[in-house]
């Protein structure tokens, strides 16, 4: 009878520990790559991950687009029109396990926009060069000049270029 109680106790412990609602704790997904870099001009990189076919990928930034093609991760970064370096994190999930890849893109040497360049100009009118002083008609102002890459003037706007902390520009 004592042996029967021990057997009953062992089976109770075994079955009590096997609850189908138990969640597995996610573990770090081992990836062979941890960082991808792009030049300011942008581009696309394809990386073979060596994972099965059932994995998902997301990016935390809109400018960094990602896609899955079989065992390949495809990351695309467009032209970075600012001088600021920008970063994104790509998250890859497979069978409840997660891994991440850091994406870095260098900034442009000067702020460019497709087919345009913006320049800040400082204008002084009414300056007497001979006497090196202001005249009564003296006027100082700043303007933003927009040109295409052929040098053609597209527009002039009064104000100056200002940069936000996130790297975007505005005219004050």
Give a short overview:
The protein is mainly beta. Helices cover 9% and strands 50% of the residues.
Structural notes for this entry:
The structure is a single chain. 9% of the residues lie in helices and 50% in strands. It is mainly β and 172 residues long. The chain has a four-stranded mixed β-sheet, with no helix packed on it. Strands 8-9-10-11 form a four-stranded antiparallel β-sheet, with no helix packed on it. A three-stranded antiparallel β-sheet has the order 2-5-4, with no helix packed on it. A hairpin with a 2-residue loop joins strand 4 and strand 5. The longest helix is centred in the first third of the chain and has 15 residues.
Structure keywords:
mainly beta; 13 strands; 9% helix; 172 residues; four-stranded antiparallel beta sheet; four-stranded mixed beta sheet
Q: Describe the oligomeric state of these chains in a short phrase.
A: single chain
Number of strands: 13
Overall structural class, as computed from helix and strand content, comes to mainly beta
SSE order in H/E notation? HEEEEEEEEEEEEE
- The number of helical runs is 1
Percent of residues in helices? under 10%
Uncertain runs are: none
The biggest beta sheet is recorded as: 4 strands, mixed
Assign an overall shape: rod-shaped
**Widest β-sheet, arrangement of strands:** 1-7-6-3
**Distance separating the two termini:** 91 Å
Radius of gyration: 30 Å
Mean pLDDT: 81
Strand content: over 45%
